[in-house]
Amino acid sequence: MNACEQSLATSSKHAPKVAPAPAPALPELPPRSLGDGRSLDRRLLSRLYVFLGSPPVEFAIREGARAGAAEPVARVVFADRATLLWVLADPQMHFGDAYSDGRASIEGDLVALLESVYRAGGGVAHRASPVRRTVEALRRPHRNTLAGSRHNIHHHYDIGNEFYSLWLGDTMAYTCAYYPTADATLDEAQVAKMDHVCRKLQLRSGESVAEAGCGWGTLALHMARRYGVRVRAFNISHEQIAYARERARREGLSDRVEYVEDDYRNINGHYDAFVSVGMLENVGLRNYTTLGDVARRVLGGRGRGLIHSIGRNQPARLQPWIEKRIFPGGYAPTLGQMSVIFEPWNLSILDVENLRLHYAQTLRHWLGLFEGASERVRAMFDDKFVRMWRSYLSGSIDAFTTGSLQLFQVVFAPGESNDVPWTRAHLYSR
Amino acid sequence: MNACEQSLATSSKHAPKVAPAPAPALPELPPRSLGDGRSLDRRLLSRLYVFLGSPPVEFAIREGARAGAAEPVARVVFADRATLLWVLADPQMHFGDAYSDGRASIEGDLVALLESVYRAGGGVAHRASPVRRTVEALRRPHRNTLAGSRHNIHHHYDIGNEFYSLWLGDTMAYTCAYYPTADATLDEAQVAKMDHVCRKLQLRSGESVAEAGCGWGTLALHMARRYGVRVRAFNISHEQIAYARERARREGLSDRVEYVEDDYRNINGHYDAFVSVGMLENVGLRNYTTLGDVARRVLGGRGRGLIHSIGRNQPARLQPWIEKRIFPGGYAPTLGQMSVIFEPWNLSILDVENLRLHYAQTLRHWLGLFEGASERVRAMFDDKFVRMWRSYLSGSIDAFTTGSLQLFQVVFAPGESNDVPWTRAHLYSR
Which residues contact B388 (CB under 8 A, 6 or more apart)? Predict the structure, then answer.
C-alpha cells in the first residue's frame, strides 16, 4: 500500500451522522525494548515507515519487533518477517493483499491509519517511477477495447446484485451522492444527486435521453418517473441490466425506459440529452475522443450533456492494488485530460462542479452499511473478500478527503447552440 | 476579415433591452445586370463570397459590379477594384483595415452582417493554415515577457481613461458582466458580476486578497467596501493605476486597497484569496504555469482563487486583425489549455462557469453606449478610430453569440485544503 493512494477520512468538517464506529483504543503493548535481538526486523519495519513518509503509525511483527511513530493513531501488525519482506518488495501491491489474506492486521481504525499515511505523503498523488510504469505497461491486463471493457466490467459489477444491495442503500446507485446539507441520509443524497443531474440537463417532459453506463438503472428510472422523459440506457454488465429491466417492469416504466446490454460506442440515434454518471472511470484515456464523438453524434447541434466522473488534480494511475484487485482498466482523469472528450467536437463546457467531499461522505455511509452487513458478506464470499472490500472502501474515503481524488460533474452542449441556461440559479431554486 | 472570427449578435433569445438601434433597411439598387461588362469584378466578388462560406451578404464595388446572396441581410461595398483585390489577398487582416479606412463600407447592420458570416463558417473557429501560422510566428510582434507585456497592455489600455468612460458605464469594468436576469442594466450586471466573484471566493471580513490585473480598480474597491477585505491589486497599465488610486482616495479606501503598478509575476506575500478577472487573455500560453505558481505561492496550502477569462472550445489564435490592431499578445485559451495553470501545482478546480452569452449582452450594451458617444470619440480621435472600434465591438458580440468565444470563471483551491464550499447554493441564496 502506498501512503498516497489508499485511504479514507475521519477529520472532515462535514463529518457524517451515520459513520463507522469511533476508532477503538490501541491495545497496550509492553514498552519497546531496545536490546531484544530483533534489530533486523526493526530495521525492516523502519524502512517501511520511512518509505511511507513517517506517518503517525506503528509497525510491528506479531509478538516481535516494533518501529515507527511513538504516538501512533493505529498499528500495522505483520504475521511474520516473511510477510514484512514481501510487503517491502512492493508495498503498493502487496500491502493490500497481505491485509486481505490476514497476514497483516490493523489495530486501531483503518480509515484513520490510511488517512495519516495519505497526509504523510503530502496529499499529492505519487507518480509511478519509470521502472514501475514499464512493468505495469507490460503486465497491463485488460485494455478498454470492446472485449476488454466487457471483461473489466464483469470483474467488478457482476459479482452479485445481492451483495451490492447490502450497502448501497435503497437507490442502488453506485456513484457519488449529492448532499444538499451535510446531515442528509445516503438515500436522500442519492435522490438529490439525480435531481441535481436532471436539473443541470434541464430535462423537459417528452424529451429523449441517451444514458451511457446506467448501473442498476436508477437514474434512468428517476428521469422517466420525475421528469417525463424517455430513456435509452446502455450498460455492458449483464447482471446490472437484468436487475434494471426487472425494476422498470415492476414500476410500469418499461415503455419509457429501455435498457440495452451494449457498449456506449454502439449508441446511435438522436436524443435531446446525453448523460453518463460514473462510467468514464472505466472508459480509458484512449477512448475519450470516441466518447465525445458519440455524445456529439447523439446530440447533433442541440441539446445538453453531462459527464460525472472521478477525477484528479494531476495525472496519475489508480493505486496499483485498487487497479488490479478492484477496478481493472480504471482511470481517474484530470479536467485537462477530460477536455479531449470535448475539444475535437466543438462541445462547449458550460459548467463544472467538483463534489469530492460529497464522495467522501457517500463512502462513509457505504462503509457504515458494509460493516453492518459484514457477517452476511462473509457468508456470501469469505473473510478475505470482506477485508479486501473494507480496505477499498476505507482507502477511497481518504483519497477523496485528502484531495488525491476529485469528483467532476461536467455539463456541456454543442458549441453552436444557444439553448443553454442563462444562469445556474434554477439548480438552487426550491 | 474571416467569417468565423469577427462579428456580433442579434438573434439571441436573451435580447437586450438597451441595444443598438434596429438594422436599417438596405438601400434599393437597380436590378443586377448580367451583361454590363464588369465580369472580372463580379468574379472577384464571388470569390470573396464563397471564401466566406456563402453568407446571406451581398458584395459590391461602389457604383459597379455586385455578387453574393440574392436576399442579403447586409451589403459590403468596396470603394474600387484595388480595395477588393487587396482584401482578397488577406481577408482576415485587410477587411478590418479597409472598413476602418472607409475604403469598405457596410449598408445594413454590421452586427447582423458579421453574425451571418460567422454562421456561414459553421460557428467553429477556423484554424490558421500552416503557412499563415509560420508567417504569424515570424511577424509576431510582442511576446508576453515582462517588457513585452508592458508594451501590449499600453497599446490597448492606455489610450485614455476618458475614452473608456464614455461607454463602459459607471463601474468602469472592462470585463464580462453577469446578468442575474436578461433585462438587468449594464451597471447592475457589473455589480452583480463583482458580487458573484466575491461569493465564489467566499470572502470574509478581515481577509486579504491579491488581485492580478485590476483594470481601473473597480473590483478591488468593491471587495473592500462590501466584503471588508484588504486588497493588493496589480496592474502594469500606468493610466489605469493612476485612475484607480484616485478613486480609492476619493472613496476613503486607500488604507484598505493598495494599487501596485507592477507585473503579476512580481506578486509576493501570503493572501487568503487570489483573483484575476480579465487578465489571462493577456498572459500568453507560455506563462500559464508561472501564473499558477504565483497563485499557489500566494495561497500557500489554503484559501481560494478565481480566474475569469475569455476562452475557446477549440484551440485557435485570436482573429488576426483583432490581435494586431486591438489586442497585441492576446489569446483566448480552451479549458484544457487553462489546466496548465492548475495541474503542476496541485490546485484543485472546484467550479467552472461559462458565461459567454453574458459577454454578448455586455458587448451589446457597450456598443449601444459607444454609438451614442461616437461623435465625442470622433472628436477625441478620428473617424478611422471610431470605425475600428465599432468593428471590434460588433465582431466581439458575434464571437460570443455564435460560440466562437467562451467566458470561463474558474474557482480553485490548493488540493490539500478542505476549507471549500460544501455546495454552490450560497451563490444563489439572496
Answer: B96, B100, B325, B326
